[in-house]
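ARCHIVE CARD
CATEGORY: sequence design from structure
SOURCE FIELD: tokenized fold
FIELD CONTENT:
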């Protein structure tokens, strides 16, 4: 849970989230997104990717989850804005590690909401060029 009154510049506790091939298979089943770039190395490589990549919506949902946990629950998320910069490559033999860090960018004048800017990396590459999650604050 967040502090009772976060301020611009406050940092969220950083998190490292593993993303495994099995996670991609489960997400494909749940979402209906069976694009082979998320499931098959040969298909991903045929399109110029280094191998299987995580679904963009899965990647953003994991990042949003870090902010939601900090804010006190998923029901606190009011809005999101993401711009993808690089895919998350998921090796067959080890999880990809999604490094999620966040900073409160601004708090509304009435203190009812905050914009949290995220920096999300994997394998040293920045995953999002822009990632902002707006959350409700307070009771």
């Amino acid at each position: 849970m967040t502090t009772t009154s976060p301020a611009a510049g406050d940092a969220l506790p950083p998190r490292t989230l593993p993303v495994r091939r099995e996670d991609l298979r489960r997400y494909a089943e749940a979402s209906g997104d069976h694009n082979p770039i998320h499931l098959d190395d040969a298909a991903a490589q045929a399109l110029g990717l280094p191998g299987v990549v995580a679904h963009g919506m899965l990647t953003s949902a994991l990042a949003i989850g870090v902010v939601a946990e900090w804010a006190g629950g998923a029901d606190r998320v009011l809005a999101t804005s993401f711009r993808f910069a690089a895919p998350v490559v998921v090796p067959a033999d080890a999880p990809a590690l999604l490094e999620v860090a966040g900073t409160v960018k601004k708090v509304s004048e009435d203190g009812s909401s905050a914009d949290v800017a995220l920096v999300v990396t994997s394998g040293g590459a920045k995953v999002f060029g822009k990632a902002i999650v707006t959350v409700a604050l307070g009771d």
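CARD ANNOTATION: The two ends are 12 Å apart (CA to CA). The longest helix spans residues 56-71.
SHELF: design records, drawer C
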